Structure formats: C-alpha cells, structure tokens
Amino acid sequence: xxxxxVSTAGHQLVLNNIAPACGFQYFDDINYIGVAEFNPGVIxxxxxxxxxxxxxxxxxxLLGDIPKVIIHWFGSDVLMAKRWMANxxxxxxxxxxxxxYCHIPPSxxxxxxxxNWLQLPVTDPLNVPAEKVxxxxxxxxxxxxxxxxxxxxxxxxRMSVIRDAIPLTRKTGIVFYNWLPPTQEIEYQATCQKRYxxxxxxxxxxxxxxxxxxxxPIHDAYSISAAEYLMSGRPVxxxxxxxxxxxxxxxxxxxxxxxxxxxxxxxxxxxxEDTVKFYQDMYDPALFKGRLEERCRQRWKGFRFAD
Length: 307
Hints:
about 40% helix; Rossmann fold; single chain
C-alpha cells in the first residue's frame, strides 16, 4: 500500500521525522497534482491547520479520492478548529466524522478536546517521534534558556509573561528559536537571542547552548522540543505536567513564578535517568510506524501498511 504524507503546518516534522521513520513519500502541501499522480491508498496529514476557507479547500484538493486519511492532530490545530466550531462552522466536521478518517491525538488532553468539542472519533494518543534518540550532553558554562517561539503562532505562547519575567531573573539569557520578525516585544532585552533554528544542525546547537527549556503555551505542554530537552538531560520549565515530569510552575501563571522556576533550573537542573529513558522510548522514530499502524487498527479493523 502506497502512503503519502503531507503537512499544512508542521512541515519540518513530517519531512524530517515522519517520512524517514516510516518510509512514506513526502509531498509539499500545495502539490495536490503530485499526490494525485502518486495515487496512494492512504494519506498521512501531519497537523490539520485550517485558519481560513482556502486552507480547507487546499486540504480537500490534496485528499482527492484517497480512500483512507490519517489526521495526526497538533495542539494549535485543535485551537483553530475550536474557533471554527464556536463560529458555527459544522460542515467540515461532519465530513471528518466519516469512516474515511482516522483521527490521532498527540496527548490525552487533546483527545478529550477532539471528542468533546468536535465530536470526532479518535484513537489512543500517539506523539510525533523525534528525528533521533538523543542522549544527555554536558550543559554550557553559562546558564541560558531555550524557548520555542514559532512566528505563525505567537498567540499560542504567553510572550508578555516571559518578557516581564526576564528582568526578575538576574537578566537570564533566553534563546528564542524559530523566531521571525516582528520581535518588538523583546527587542530591548539585551540578554535575548533570536535564532532561525530550522536545520537539524542548528537545532542541535540550540540545545547544546542552553541549560533548560521554558515552555508555557496556552495549550498542552506536550512537544518534541520538551522531549528532546529531557532526553538531553535538560529540565523543562512549564506550568503543565508532562509524563514523568511534573510542572515546575504551580497555580496561576505569573512572571514572578516563571522567574522563580528559572532560578530553580539554574541551581537544580538534573533530569533523572529513568525520565531520560522514558522519553528516549516514547519518541524513538524506529518504533513510530508500528505504533501508528496500531492506532489505525483501532479505527480500521485489520489495517496494515504493508500489502
């Protein structure tokens, strides 16, 4: 069975992580002609980002007459879908409930939202794999904080809280990676760096240059970045619990709590060995295809990728 994979939001994840791990044929998200000519029996969508009707039309062009569609939902995709539902758009969700679709959430939190908000039939959760299994590496001499900040979803993160926390942390340096202009909210912070860490080598350098990850999104703390930092022996500072890693920020999120948690990471930033091993297994790309196939069988009885 031929499988095509595309992404409308997480291009790098699908291109660098999913396609190589599974042996799927990757297509750019506007190459609906190429997908049609490939004529796959299954298409894997990494993310389902629909911000306007043109996105929905593009999705439908990519899908064509492909009989089976796997949608692996990401956090911001669910937020966008909830906005559509709140605005009364129901047609697209009725179509997504058909037997043609297999909806896979990355976490229990998103599974509940897909079921309760969108009434979609979902499988057990499955996280997107890392590009590679990482091992703990030495931390830099200078304490620096990594912070993923994608340009397309600045409202997904609490930038104002981060901005106000920086002066309270002895001017701790923060590396914002995957950031693109505008950057006026942190422009005056001399300790901040902005890196366009798009290649695997550049991202490896971000992890090597930082001692912990700050992750306080408005939706679900699960992320490959969090897993990769924990695998690398670096703590994740978040206000949400992760498997085998509790939230360091408790209660209502404030700039003072963020500053206090970063100070804790500076002085006590060890990651237990069992936590490292847990995330090495959970995000191992070699195990992903089998896990994906098992989730698909929850939706389509007897499903197999192989002929």
